[in-house]
Amino acid sequence: MLRFAAVLLEIWLLPLPAMAARYPSYGTLQTTKSDGVLNVVINNTYSTINLFDMHVQSDLANLIETLQANDTDVRVVVFSKSVLPLYDTGFPDMLFPVALLWNITQLPQATIAVVEGRTRGIGNEFLMSCDMRFASTSPLRGAMYLSRLIGRGLTFEYVLSSADVDARTAARVGWVNAAFDTSRELHQYVQALAARIALFPAAGIVATKTGINAVTRPSRDVLVQDAQNVIAALVPTPPVQDAFKRFLQVTRNQSIGPMELNYGAEVRRLFN
Amino acid sequence: MLRFAAVLLEIWLLPLPAMAARYPSYGTLQTTKSDGVLNVVINNTYSTINLFDMHVQSDLANLIETLQANDTDVRVVVFSKSVLPLYDTGFPDMLFPVALLWNITQLPQATIAVVEGRTRGIGNEFLMSCDMRFASTSPLRGAMYLSRLIGRGLTFEYVLSSADVDARTAARVGWVNAAFDTSRELHQYVQALAARIALFPAAGIVATKTGINAVTRPSRDVLVQDAQNVIAALVPTPPVQDAFKRFLQVTRNQSIGPMELNYGAEVRRLFN
Amino acid sequence: MLRFAAVLLEIWLLPLPAMAARYPSYGTLQTTKSDGVLNVVINNTYSTINLFDMHVQSDLANLIETLQANDTDVRVVVFSKSVLPLYDTGFPDMLFPVALLWNITQLPQATIAVVEGRTRGIGNEFLMSCDMRFASTSPLRGAMYLSRLIGRGLTFEYVLSSADVDARTAARVGWVNAAFDTSRELHQYVQALAARIALFPAAGIVATKTGINAVTRPSRDVLVQDAQNVIAALVPTPPVQDAFKRFLQVTRNQSIGPMELNYGAEVRRLFN
């Protein structure tokens, strides 16, 4: 069992150069492909805290375009990363990430997010846009799309209080599919699941996703209107701009520090 | 910890007269305000069982109008009560409570319901209309809006069987956010949560609520049509009118007694 | 307690001939009626594995037509069966089962499914169409309607991996209302629940179901379009037809064997 896991992790961490032609290692994405499963490690070398910023988002948009036109060769995509924190406050187009996340839900492949480390804001919305989520010991902080998974009551509590939620609690309430004590167990479970799903024909995966999306996904119009009404209307306002400025000061331009490592407790420093 | 809780409870129970100008103690609502949090104790002196009747609903409608026009001074509202039982069978306008509950979901403030004691019928719909719910040892009995929180299957079971559900079970299935063993722990948790949420700017709370409502709340049309199709069509029918009459007899006009204290077990007395 | 359960089971298993005039024992359905509760045992004598095939579906359609025109005499319907496995691959009209399942959600009676044994594919969709579900030790395999009960994340995991899920896990995530260790406890709980619901007037049951359906059920159009877009578009394709052919070979025309008893593990034999 342990040996098997070790082999899996090794495969996991080694990009296969032969595949680079079709699924290249972008600046921020390292890809490896094997038996219908594409593993994508998000590693933002432009940021000390692996920010889900315009570099990651642009690279993801390119990858998704390739996957969307996929010839059924890849049937499962596993996204992983050590940390995926806050939204890049300097991103120019508010609707770009909304379109990106919608396009992820439209992929013909099954998508799995592996969470190891802090995942907040747009980083968490990215998790929500994947079909499934698995975590080891990670603090998660929700944003609006969370409500599709855990319901109104808990979403209001977690988002309004801007609390960091541990992976075990997240699994109990349905935020992630399951939580694991160790990184090894996490990757072993996810790789076995991905291999299992990849057994099935691509057409079956597409049909299943279409059916589940038809019942559980808000319409694209709702999401775009939501982004326009809420985010676009909120972000330019003085209190939010003030909080952003203070945030950049306190975090020394989004680098490692108390605010990044313990956002839940430190956030009050932004408002007094 | 215990000392802190004791102080909290003291604050909790004392209305601040200085605030009466803007948030008056209505006949059935006692209000206290502190650091962006408005605590509202529902205490219906017209009823021996704290009925959620026309007095409470009218006072709430006035309070909500004030809150709706709020100048961002109040950012969190905590509603509490010892018991909040059945619907007032004599209420003249079926659509008034529907509009009232909808308006609560529209408030710019975060709303938290604290449940201590029996909560049933329209009393439970009021809980559902708040953003979050926390309970200590309380029997709850569901009504239709419950399905938004706990799903079709359990809602059918609880509502069709008219069962009293304990707070611990309610927390496990998502009916309330969390259940606590003691009143002290309950209030301590809620006051800390309210204080945390009140840290954030009012605009952020509004935007978060707008976003979550967009995805999780049925449209106003669905709710109004539902009330017209179901409640308004049902209430005037002979079997419901007969059950109401028998209910008033058995409860001695909705006073304390076996039916009120143990509705789940006693309800069969209405039908044979 | 045990004696009471024994009596219940006895009633359960004996069809009452006197009732046959209105609720006949169809070829595949054995019915017994008592105090407003109709018990329906699905026993497909045309199939060695109790297939949810055209015989069962036709008999159910007839029963549902009778129940739909019910004179309020029957207020609760309990469906049970030992096993209810895969979809009949030879069924001529893809939209017939969609209409059948929709009509079950429209019944004026409360409907309860009792699960004992393997329940997969259309058999699970039948479970989903009932108001409530209770299980003892049974492997369940989900299909698309599952998402209404357990959310996007877990539905994707279970359906895409085509995994058999045990009843205990199913209860934890909301797939079934509750799981029981023994058949006796299961039937005892369900019969007590059915008797409790049958206490209430038929008009109240109808109104409750209408209200919950209004909020939690996808529209008929969504379901029909879903069936047309997904199932009707998928089933005639070569990979699905190939998988069906292989499935019939491997299962020796859907009879008892390793594939039937352990579908989750054996399914890979269909694809390599």
UniProtKB/TrEMBL annotation, chains A, B, C:
Does Signal count among this protein's keywords?
Answer: yes
Q: Which SUPFAM superfamilies match?
A: ClpP/crotonase
Q: Which UniProt keywords apply?
A: Signal
Q: Which CDD domains match?
A: crotonase-like
The signal peptide stretch is: 1-20
Give the top-rank taxon of the lineage listed in the UniProt record for this protein. Eukaryota
| Gene3D superfamilies noted in UniProt | 2-enoyl-CoA Hydratase, Chain A, domain 1 (3.90.226.10)
- The protein depicted here goes by the name Enoyl-CoA hydratase/isomerase family protein
